[in-house]
């Protein structure tokens, strides 16, 4: 059976922070995914057989005769854009070639439409054209319940939205050997940007140590807030207890999490509304048996079951974060219990193979809803009505009513 083809639009393919996109592409079974991007990054690390690069002109104009030629030759069932910012590039092609448009919203792209940050020059295209994405999309896939509600409040009918959680490679992220008698290992992994809340993690680690908790902290990643983090480590007297590991490749992150006892994920909503959705590293740490300690933020409550697979505390509450960290560092049996439950949850709910199978079923629903008769270009409301009448799998339709 010949696989259907999907044109995946990704502005840059691929920064280290978006490796989940490649994991998704590699897990397809019934669809062949071709990537259309402005620029290709890290080609030596992130290989994919069909990546087409538009270049600088396309990046600024959203116009590419080569892309039009490929899409016009036929054979594509739909276009799938990652991030609302990437969908800005996809909309003109979807309209010209009368293809359904699926958009995955991941987190920052939704609040950005209403924040002052959209007025920064690099976001001008999104500020101007983002509303057309919402009007034109056939199906919006939201990485968390919170994002589903936010996109709906922007005026997209619920019939054209679904919660679709991103999976992880549960075979790559597995528990390693942990020694209960050794000093516990705490890690933070991510870009050094405000929404990660890493400085609160540093302060909580310092407070836990002052209260007598053992442990060392490794911080993996890089970004604009590195000077502030380094200053916080010095100010808290943690220079000998904290290691900055730098930005690590995926396999090195997997090895780090396999040995870690606790993952700190002190995410917070920034002043301009930027936030996390389904934080990938929390899923990866959970699959590796490291206990996630995060915040009541974004999609984290869907990934971490407070008290069963990890702990959640209010955003920016250093005292609560330190108290839970101290509890975990002092109780190896508790870490083992929560870590085992965390991995079991990932196996049951976030196996990337099953999540991509659900994505392909969502594609099927879009194709069924838009194939006969084909709606005129731009008639997203008609496609949405047809999609609502189709029968997509229950686990991907709308926000769940459970946790």
Give your account of this protein's structure.
There is one protein chain. The protein has 403 residues and is an alpha/beta fold. The protein has two domains: 4-167 and 351-396, Rossmann fold (3-Layer(aba) Sandwich); 185-349, Glycogen Phosphorylase B (Rossmann fold), CATH 3.40.50.2000. The protein is 40% helix and 16% strand. It has helices at residues 19-26, 55-61, 65-72, 84-96, 124-136, 145-153, 198-210, 226-235, 250-259, 280-287, 300-303, 318-329, 332-349, 352-371, 380-389, and strands at residues 4-9, 12-13, 31-37, 39-40, 51-53, 76-82, 101-105, 139-142, 161-163, 185-189, 216-220, 242-246, 262-265, 291-295, 311-313. The strands form three sheets. A seven-stranded parallel sheet has the order 5-3-1-6-7-8-9, with helices on both faces. Strands 12-11-10-13-14-15 form a six-stranded parallel sheet, sandwiched between helices. Strands 2-4 form a two-stranded parallel ribbon. Helix 7 (198-210) packs parallel to helix 8, helix 7 packs across helix 12 and helix 14 (352-371) packs across helix 15. The longest helix is centred in the last third of the chain and has 20 residues, at 352-371. The protein is globular and about 65 Å long.
List the helices and strands and how they pair.
Blueprint: E1 4-9, E2 12-13, H1 19-26, E3 31-37, E4 39-40, E5 51-53, H2 55-61, H3 65-72, E6 76-82, H4 84-96, E7 101-105, H5 124-136, E8 139-142, H6 145-153, E9 161-163, E10 185-189, H7 198-210, E11 216-220, H8 226-235, E12 242-246, H9 250-259, E13 262-265, H10 280-287, E14 291-295, H11 300-303, E15 311-313, H12 318-329, H13 332-349, H14 352-371, H15 380-389
Parallel strand pairs: 1-3, 1-6, 2-4, 3-5, 6-7, 7-8, 8-9, 10-11, 10-13, 11-12, 13-14, 14-15
Helix pairs in contact: 4-5, 7-8, 7-12, 10-13, 14-15
